[in-house]
User: Which sequence fits this backbone?
């Protein structure tokens, strides 16, 4: 019996395509991320937290970022950036700002949009070239 294609298959294929799209392509689901010199493992899990329903969570003590695996690639990337912003602010010792979810989300969205706007537009994930722009 043939195995049904899963979301993971799609994401892996998309990720492989982006990796081959050049140095500015990004992986849909990177497996690790460097936050100011600290190497964080990124895990895509069914349950991020048993205490509350979350899409993402950073754990500095075990240097792990957990992201809900059911998110589409673009959302998954934005959640990863959100957790990275938490990590950067914590690493800078800005604990009050690191706990400010509105600030963290604003920075994550701003960085995400800026990143996409300067990225290689050849992949579906990063194709954000405004219409009418040559
Ligand atoms: Zn947060």
Assistant:
């Amino acid at each position: 019996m043939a195995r049904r294609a899963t979301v993971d298959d799609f994401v892996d294929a998309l990720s492989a395509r982006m990796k081959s799209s050049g140095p500015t392509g990004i992986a849909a689901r990177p497996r690790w991320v460097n936050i100011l010199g600290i190497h964080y493992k990124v895990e895509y899990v069914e349950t991020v937290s048993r205490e509350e329903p979350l899409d993402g969570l950073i754990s500095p003590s075990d240097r792990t970022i957990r992201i809900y695996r059911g998110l589409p690639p673009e959302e998954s990337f934005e959640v990863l950036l959100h957790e990275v912003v938490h990590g950067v602010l914590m690493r800078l010792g800005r604990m009050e700002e690191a706990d400010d979810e509105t600030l963290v989300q604003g920075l994550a969205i701003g960085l995400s949009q800026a990143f996409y706007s300067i990225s290689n537009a050849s992949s579906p994930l990063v194709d954000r070239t405004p219409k009418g722009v040559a």
In short: Residues 82, 86, 101, 104 surround zinc ion (CB under 6 Å). The longest strand covers residues 38-45.
